[in-house]
Amino acid sequence: MTAEELRQRLYQKPFMPFRVRLKDGRFFDISDPIMNLVAESVFIIGIPAPDDPRWADRQEWVDLALIEGLENPLETSTPTGS
Predict the structure, then answer these.
(1) In the CATH hierarchy, which top-level class contains the domain 3-71?
(2) CB atoms within 10 A of CB 48
(3) Which residue ranges of the chain lie beneath pLDDT 70?
């Protein structure tokens, strides 16, 4: 996964929620592009707060080399992370 591929998915208009699946079996659901940041070698994923999903509670730094693939679109909102 390249930074440019991830940026295209994250900032497409209209935004379509998607799942980031990692090689170790973990996954993160991306439902809002504003909480996330793509750098050249890392994807910083904002994890929504349990009491107010409009705000990030914490963040996960994921090396782009660990991303197995993206699944699109998400049909329903599911908990982020596993």
Answers:
(1) mainly beta
(2) 20
(3) 73-82
